[in-house]
Design goal:
12 helices; disordered C terminus; 22% strand; Arc Repressor Mutant, subunit A; ten-stranded antiparallel beta sheet; globular; 2 domains; 339 residues
Amino acid sequence: MSVELAAGCEQTERWRITGATLGRRLASWSDVLAATHLAFDVQPTDGTPTDFQAAVTRRKFSDLTLVDCAAMPFRGSRSRAVIEGSRDQHDHENILGFQFVARGVETVREGGRALALKAGDVVLWDGLQPTDIEIVEPFYKRTLMFPRDRVLAVCPRLGEQDAFPALDGNGPARLLARYMNALVHELPRLDASARQAAADAALELLRGAIEPTLPTSRATARAATRAEIRRYVRTHLRDPALGPVSIARAYSMSVRALHALFEDADESVAGLVRGERLARCMEDLRRPNGGPVTEIAFRWGFSDAAHFSRVFKREFGVTPSEARHQADRTLAPERWPSG
């Protein structure tokens, strides 16, 4: 296989297959899929031409990946053995994919469901499920891949389901498909902060597509409320008054009830606010144009520079100034593999 950096966009890669024979081209395609999607055992079908062609374009933003895939007919199998064998080689496979079919026909057998996908269809797939696919007609699809933990953080009930919900006729899912198309054109012009906002918006659209379709229990309802509060915290971090009192008021509950809601979670309400603020500060400290340390602290809701420095060092093991210097030392143009 070969990979090249797309001109004018430092975070776009294009992958192409190589090989003089069909067998080598299919083996090259298996390597491309493992590097950009998931590991598959790739085999020919009766419809696979001897000059088999396939390609992938990949765009990364924040911790999401947007992938365009075009291929002639082939068959792919992702068995338990393939999944287990790929875990040490590919650390990106613990993902959920939202796929939009632009052209062609693909059959999918994943877990207990069998799908025949055609142009215009959208589907959510699980990177850890054994899957068999067959491209029946030359195929073009666009997929947005999310880290599993990010999706489950905003939609915890999804982790309790035996099968993913169908997204046929789902309004937010259709909107997310259109949003992916817009991202292709806009990502090259976005800075790091805007890319993070774009990733957050994509996650919210996915949540809007999935969450209303899932059944509710008391435990999952509590988890869903915590996820909603986490979203509220992230959008109000700049408010110095953000804390248990203001959050409880926003959700029409007592402070005691708010603390009880988080008693079986990994962090307290105050810890959640502090952790989100520190994460944003770290992001800005690593940006060349993030601003002075004190300005960053105040920007994200800290009202005391000395307190900010203490909790930052307790969280990350370095002072804010040391984090800034480390980022300056490591800042360099990215190098991409070249064939």
